[in-house]
Amino acid sequence: MSSPLKIELGRRYRFSASHRLHSAHLTEEENCRVFGKCNNPYGHGHNYVVEVTVSGNVDPATGMIANLADLDAYVERNMLDEFDLKSLNEDVPAFRDTVPTTENLCIEIFQRLKSFPSAKLERIRIEETGKNSFEYSGENSEGNRQ
Amino acid sequence: MILLTRKIEFSASHFYNNPSLSPEENRRIFGKCNNPHGHGHNYTLEVTVEGEPDPVTGMVLDLKELKDILEREVMQRMDHRHLNYEVPELTGQIPTCENISRVIWLLLEPKITQGKLHRVRLYESPDLFADCFRNGANAPGNS
Q1: pTM, whole model, 2 decimals?
Q2: What dihedral angle (degrees, nearest 10) is formed by the CA atoms of A55, A132, A73, B121?
Q3: Where are the domains of chain A?
Q4: What CATH number has the domain spanning A8-136?
Q5: What superfamily in CATH does domain B2-138 come from?
Q6: Containing H/E element for B24?
Q7: Splitting chain B (143 residues) into consecutive groups of 10 residues, what average pLDDT does each group show?
Q8: B-proximal residues of A, 46-75, CB under 8 Å
């Protein structure tokens, strides 16, 4: 009962992108076996939903952990502009040598957003489809400490 | 430990304005939300209670009781109300998701006597929510 109250703010963003799951470390047969339909050389796409959760003190003057306009602009610049209507394999340098699974996408987006200056990034949760979601909170409370 | 969640929806109006700031500062910080005529949302509240199932009833707490608590503490206070003017617990605070979720936590925590309040999640829209919880060992944010 005595531990302090903590507030987190969650905001959902959407982007659409294509990808192909393929590893240069595996043979053609292995890629086909491991990734199945996702190994199709022409790629395929998803409407990704990215839930960004931040925490921090609620400023008594504004009632906010972080100004949403600031968060939206930061996410626009560091995530949406880079990923929306792109090929993750071709257009995002991080995925030249890394398989663009949604697990790896969580890590990449966490790295891109963790320096948001107004609040601490707690976690990234991505819905690849309505049925699959993935979550990443950084390693050892990595992120911008407040 | 079992987590049990009940969801309710309420509709309310609000606007953001801090009287200690100038009109220009209020407009700059709060943007469209500063419109003094207010605007409204359909809020969705998810209340999560933690506990062990009672060996006799199999329940962490009686859902009917939780429903009654939410009706009394949240619906009657906030549904179809203006959050700036009609909810005394929010007096002096900007009625953001963050502040409303904390007020709801403080209202519910002492009323939930079977099990323990674990998390309050308040959606202002499907794309914006605040979570309130105690930052202890089982805090949802630590999962």
Answers
A1: 0.90
A2: -40
A3: 8-136
A4: 3.30.479.10
A5: 6-pyruvoyl tetrahydropterin synthase/QueD (3.30.479.10)
A6: helix B23-30
A7: 96 97 96 95 98 92 96 98 97 97 98 96 98 81 51
A8: 53, 55, 58, 60-65, 67-69
